[in-house]
Amino acid sequence: MKLSLTIVASEDKDEYLPLLLIADESEKAVKQYFADGDLFSIHINDELSGVILFTTIDVSTIELKNFALLKAYRGKGLGKKVIQTALSDYKEMGVKQVLVGTANSSIGNIAFYQKAGFRMKEIKRDFFLDYPEPIIENGIRALDMLMFQKELD
After folding, report:
1. In this structure, what DSSP letter does residue 128 have?
2. 146 with 103: CB under 8 angstroms?
3. Which domain holds residue 28?
4. Can you give the residue ranges of the N-acetyltransferase domain (predicted)?
5. How many domains, in total, are found in the chain?
6. 3-state percent breakdown (helix, strand, coil) of the chain, nearest 5
């Protein structure tokens, strides 16, 4: 399996909006952060398989804001490999920690990020109340954002 991440030029980011909406159902929310973030297209065996987007918090901290793999590529350990590849590059650039947030209702994401080495940092209560439509996953309404942190050592 050949995995590659390719930075997406600013003028091409709109083409990837459908993939970004897999991970974040609010187009309004995505458009607030995707212009300023580093968007990478994910290719597995030269086929577009997803996207991952990071924003800069400060010189030593980034936030993983959006990560989506097409359904055919999920559940095969590829997500962890994508994160490892991306974070290896950021570590070489001097990044020391990575933050990621997910909804309290995203049970699979909560498990995934912990398996990828992230630890619980904080809870942003009522984060999803501003979304235009309620998000329901696993029979649970998304209300709070659970923030996780990973140190790059």
Report:
1. G
2. yes
3. 3-151
4. 3-150
5. 1
6. 35, 35, 30
